[in-house]
């Protein structure tokens, strides 16, 4: 009897969901991010990386209606970033290598008024090490270049 | 009364879903493709394009479990392809320009036995002009380079 109880406890332990990583700049990792839809993709020559840009339901609805100036409160944009790797079977193709980080912009025009209405969060690598950089102020500094598009670089990619 | 009836009919006409495009190689456009999840991204130097690779529920389940050798029957992989464009606010970034095409690989090991178990479909541009190229045989010719990975070039990108 005790043996079966122990087995039940151990099974529960090993099948439970992975613990959430620590917050980044006070923001919790959006647990459903892997199920979000695509808004765009990009490749950066300056740091040899490939990116998928995704969004939560609020973001997708806004993107599809063209209502992104500004993006509505409740929007979360996700960016999944991998180092470039050459495809072994098709050399001219760059494909995802090692994961660099996953990062998110959370729109709350009141809470994040000091950083353009956006909260910035990032977790590095497969271990999801949280970035805590003065409430995302350095992130916002770079995003000022996109001030004319609500501090968001991504423009939703056209789809029929 | 007749006037209101006419108005109701016209409203119904203009708000109905867009008509489906003609099939490509006998395959219908998967109507829900815009809601599929991301499997990977790529950039091709040989034709200056950016791609998002997505999949239906069967594909996502297989990708996340690492059960892609072979991909199960019922898998549909989507590839959304745009011409490269330089980001006006961040020059080293390549971002989606004009849509080139959306294309799909449909796994049915019996139905498509002559082409590696895969049906190949493609619709060009925002007008979704269907490709009909001898049942996708020319597509299969190129995909033979990926014979060791079930004729699929895409490897699911790592995510924590």
Short description, anyone?
By secondary structure, chain A is α+β, with helices and mostly antiparallel strands. The first copy, chain A, has a single domain, classed as Cytochrome P460 (Chalcone isomerase), CATH 3.50.70.
Please explain how this structure is put together:
The structure is a homodimer of 160-residue chains. Chain A has a single domain, classed as Cytochrome P460 (Chalcone isomerase, 3-Layer(bba) Sandwich), CATH 3.50.70. The model of chain A has no long low-confidence stretch (mean pLDDT 92). The longest helix of chain A has 14 residues, at 2-15. In chain A, 39% of the residues are buried. Chain A is of the alpha+beta class and 160 residues long. In chain A, strands 1-2-3-4-5-6 form a six-stranded antiparallel beta sheet. Chain A is built from three helices and six strands. The interface between A and B is large, with 46 and 46 residues. β1 (37-44) of chain A pairs antiparallel with β4 of chain B, so a sheet runs across the interface.
